[in-house]
Amino acid sequence: MRRLKSDKSVIKDLPEKIEKDQYCKLTPQQTAIYQNVIDTTMKAVEAAKGIARKGLVLKLITALKQVCNHPKQFLKKGSGDPALSGKSQLLFDLMEQILENGEKTLIFTQYQEMGKLLVEMLEKEFGLEIAFLHGGVSRKKRDEMVENFQNNRTTRVLILSLKAGGTGLNLTAANNVIHYDLWWNPAVEAQATDRAYRIGQKKNVMVHRFITQSTFEEKINKLLMSKKELAELTVSIGEKWIGEFSDEELKELVDLG
Predict the structure, then answer these.
(1) What is the pLDDT of residues 157-188, one digit of tens each?
(2) C-alpha to C-alpha distances, 186 to 8, 20, 64, 189, 210, nearest whole angstrom
(3) If we measure between CA atoms, which residue out of 134, 92, 128 comes closest to residue 111?
(4) Which residues contact 16 (CB under 8 A, 6 or more apart)?
(5) Distance between CA atoms of 228 and 179, rounded to whole angstroms?
(6) Whole-angstrom Cα distance, residue 211 to residue 220?
(7) Per-residue pLDDT tens over the stretch 92-122
(8) Residues sharing a CB contact under 8 Å with residue 204, sequence separation 6 or more, in sequence order
């Protein structure tokens, strides 16, 4: 757990922001799909060169991210059962505790299809009405969602796409922030977290970063933690730096274990 303190000379009245990496495991179905994606895509990566290769590497990383999120997001079909995804099960366990404490939560994902799936799963499990703020939402509707989340005590969860909800919103009613999938861009993550951690926040803010064990997610996170210059590099270029990996480095990154 990392305790992060803001510059108190600039912001004197803010409480603490506490980051916690939350780990889960792939389910058997996720493991089979993950391995299949590697087996089929790595052959194409090894045969490609230049820009075409970089494109295939990003495609591979995106596919593996979706598998880690939920099989349905990657397959675009099948069951949305939370039991099929380690992350979804982790989310349910965490949400149970948060809701029992009477607290509010922001959940960030990069993907619109995952956001919609999260709405379905959480509404069904917890009997809540949940809004999803993404790029396709009108300005008027967005303002209504924010107003409702901030002022309606029964509105407990707001799901946001990272791009649409990453900046400019004041959502201090939440003191829990969940990053369901990571962008490995510290600046983007911090901007999203700061929807809750800003002037007007009266409670400590818990930031939960979901990471799937033994996958490329855990390995990239370790890389960023161990190499500060790499973390600074990702601020400007997101995941594109992975495209520079050699075939061997890439294989080591994505292999299970």
Answers:
(1) 999 998 887 778 999 999 999 999 998 777 78
(2) 21, 14, 20, 5, 14
(3) 134
(4) 3, 4, 5, 204, 205
(5) 21
(6) 10
(7) 999 999 999 999 999 999 999 999 999 999 9
(8) 15, 16, 17, 18, 175
Task: Answer whether residue 6 shows pLDDT above 50.
Answer: no
Is residue 33 helix, strand or coil? helix
pLDDT at 11: 54
pLDDT, position 253? 94
Alpha-carbon torsion (14, 20, 21, 25), positive or negative = negative
Q: Is 235 helix (H, G, I), strand (E, B) or coil?
A: helix
Phi-psi region of 152 (alpha: psi -120 to 50; beta: other; left: phi over 0): beta
List of residues 6+ apart from 97 with CB closer than 8 A: none
> Please, which residues bridge with residue 178 across strands?
107, 208
pLDDT the model gives residue 239: 67
Q: Which amino acid is present at 69?
A: N
Q: Where are the beta strands (DSSP E) in the chain?
A: 2-4, 17-24, 105-109, 131-133, 157-161, 176-179, 205-212
pTM of full prediction above 0.85: yes
Task: pLDDT band for 190, please (50, 70, 90 cuts).
Answer: confident
From residue 79, give the alpha-carbon distance in Å to each of 10, 70, 71, 108, 178.
Answer: 49, 10, 8, 22, 23
pLDDT at position 126 is 95
CATH numbers and ranges of domains, the chain: 1-257 (3.40.50.300)
Selection from 191, 172, 207, 202 nearest residue 17 by Cα: 207
- Provide the pLDDT confidence category of residue 8 given band limits of 50, 70 and 90: very low
Asked whether 206 and 176 are in contact (CB, 8 A), the reply is yes
